[in-house]
Amino acid sequence: MKFQDTQSMDERLELMSALSKSFLFRAAKIDEEGAFPYENISELKTSGYTSLTIPKRYGGEEISLYDLVRFQEYIARGDGATALSIGWHMGIIKDLGEKNNWNESIFRMLCEDVKNGALINNCASEPQTGSPTRGGKPTTTAVKQDGFWLINGRKTYTTMSPVLDYFNVTATIPESNKVAYFLISRSTQGVEIEETWDSIAMKGTGSHDLILNNVKVKEENLVEYFEPGKKGASGWLLHIPACYLGIAQAAANHAIEFAKSYSPNSIKGTISDFPNVQQKIGEMELELIRARHFLYSVAKQWDLSAKDERNQMNPELGAVKLSVTNSAITIVDLAMRIVGASSLSKKNLLQQYYRDVRAGLHNPPMDDMTILLLAKNAINRSVD
Ligand SMILES: Cc1cc2nc3c(=O)[nH]c(=O)nc-3n(C[C@H](O)[C@H](O)[C@H](O)COP(=O)(O)OP(=O)(O)OC[C@H]3O[C@@H](n4cnc5c(N)ncnc54)[C@H](O)[C@@H]3O)c2cc1C
């Protein structure tokens, strides 16, 4: 069944839940081998999911941010790496449709390709810049030559690199000192992936290095100028906390199932009968409720807001990311305390969740930047 054939959100969540169950089935092997989840991505494409954020004006469904984060959370319950990977693609198409900054014909062409299964990601990080959100200028360069752009550089953390069809690459134009995004198709000569991804967290994201060696693209492939570190509010980045919330929910489910079935011979019944275990289950539940309400209420607020109101939402968006990601780390920790030493076994998914949720700290925006933003906002707010 395809998402496009479903009648209601319940039916869609049922479909995503079924997909997520097969992702869960494959998760441990993919993590252990450090492999890329080709099958998961292929199933998401076949289900029609990867085109759901295309704007209505180009024949898509333009699903809301609220719906997107719900789907993303479900994917992450099965496999966090698959969720983070496809989340970039889904969010970028949603963001481009909402902001409408690109040349119409090139975005229309991209949307047509996405309908046929094409995937895109932003490639902004470099060893020299660290996180691009801090304002570092790309060392990747784009030089105009005979009516074409010649692009050279190296990008790190190119999530989903094994299957991307489009790389949306940031580069500095030395002659004007401006910075822009360039849309580069995988088949362009000089595009190469170097398999550098050796992280212990989110192993299945295939976040390798992208190498651009005299890559020649047309003038119109400069799709958007921007100022480093000064991008507007980005609701679509809520796919990140949604991912870590999904992993946390999976960890909590795992621990509760364990508590309901584990019966060492020192007791009658199971450990779920005991206050020390119930305390931790209650604490996990509290974190989950808090994280879920915060994430989904801000997503809904985004959907209901006009463009200028959305531009004021950076503090809330950052606060959600910080709060949910840190809650996810706490929840996985509590889940492992419930299960005990066997949570550290290689065969136990909890040890994978433990590694995976840590990656959330290093996805944008970073916690220290959010806290500073909140502080500045509070200081500058006029008190009645
Ligand atoms: C799983 C995963 C997937 C990712 N996918 C993508 C992707 O698809 N595309 C992409 O472009 N990127 C991606 N990234 C990269 C990510 O967005 C960051 O660029 C990357 O994680 C580096 O961030 P960092 O905070 O470790 O690095 P840095 O910015 O180098 O920070 C390292 C340390 O230095 C400090 N620091 C650095 N600069 C400053 C400063 N100016 N002021 C104060 N403190 C500073 C930080 O606080 C931190 O403690 C991904 C990362 C991960 C983990």
Radius of gyration over all CA atoms, rounded? 22 Å
Distance between the termini: 56 Å
CATH architecture of the largest domain: Up-down Bundle
Number of strands: 8
CATH superfamily of the largest domain: Butyryl-CoA Dehydrogenase, subunit A, domain 3
Low-confidence stretches: none
Characterize the largest beta sheet: strand count, sense, and whether it forms a barrel: 4 strands, mixed
Mean pLDDT: 97
In N-to-C order, the SSE pattern is: HHHHHEEEEEEEEHHHHHH
CATH topology of the largest domain: Butyryl-CoA Dehydrogenase, subunit A, domain 3
Beta strand %: 5-15%
How many alpha or pi helices? 11
Number of domains: 3
- Helix fraction, binned, reads 40-55%
Could you characterize the architecture of this molecule?
- α6 packs parallel to α9.
- The chain is 49% helix and 15% strand.
- The protein is globular and about 80 Å long.
- The chain starts with 8 loop residues before the first helix and ends with a helix.
- The strands form two sheets. The chain has a four-stranded mixed beta sheet with strand order 1-4-5-8.
- The mean pLDDT is 97.
- It folds into three domains: 116 residues, Acyl-CoA dehydrogenase/oxidase, N-terminal domain (Butyryl-Coa Dehydrogenase, subunit A, domain 1); 105 residues, Butyryl-CoA Dehydrogenase, subunit A, domain 2, CATH 2.40.110.10; 143 residues, Butyryl-CoA Dehydrogenase, subunit A, domain 3 (Up-down Bundle).
- By secondary structure, it is an alpha+beta fold.
- Bound molecules: flavin-adenine dinucleotide.
- The site of flavin-adenine dinucleotide has 22 residues, from α4, β1 and β3.
